[in-house]
Design goal:
Elements lengths: L8 E5 L4 H7 L1 H9 L4 E6 L4 H4 L7 E4 L9 H14 L3 E4 L4 H9 L4 E5 L9 E3 L10 H10 L16 H13 L27
Parallel strand pairs: 1-2, 1-4, 2-3, 4-5, 5-6
Helix pairs in contact: 2-6, 4-5
Amino acid sequence: MLKKTDPKNIVVMRTDRIGEVLLSTVAVDAIRNCYPGANVSFVTSGYSRPVIEDREDVDEIFIVETMDGKGWGGQVLPLAAFLRRKRFDMAVVLNPHKMLHLACFLAGIPVRVGYDRKWGCLLNGKIPDERDRGRKHEVEYTMEVLRLLGIEGDVPAPRLSVSAEAESAITDLMSAKGTTLEKPLVAIHPGSSNPAKIWPCER
């Protein structure tokens, strides 16, 4: 266990798709439960930033792109400089990526946890990355990573914080479509940028 006494600054990293980022926000709730006085920052992509930006419990968001296919070499030093400047005590890397692992290492963050893949040797706390086996929910894997820090407790449900402006826009959209949110609404999004995640038409 790598639990650090009374950490002041903690960074959570998840830079891939919106759905994965939303599920990973349970880490913020669990960290806040365990360390209510700490500052919590979140590193994500510009694409997924809207999932995080209305959360009142995230102190700062830093944007890096790991999915645009342009390579990450030019981003690793600025990210490392940001991390070093913030003097983070802990880094929780929830999507294995060489850039994220290297930046945390170069920044000298004393406690670095995540999955043992893509230069996982640069972490000092890690679990095997078995998520592709689908044996557990993504949220459960996130909590396994957090247990490396001594963060225990029930598995929380993801939550999406939205602004009053966003709520108003959705209310107007529903009204224009002739419906309201007075009854439960079921939404299905069968598409994905990842072919493996596209729901087949026959289903």
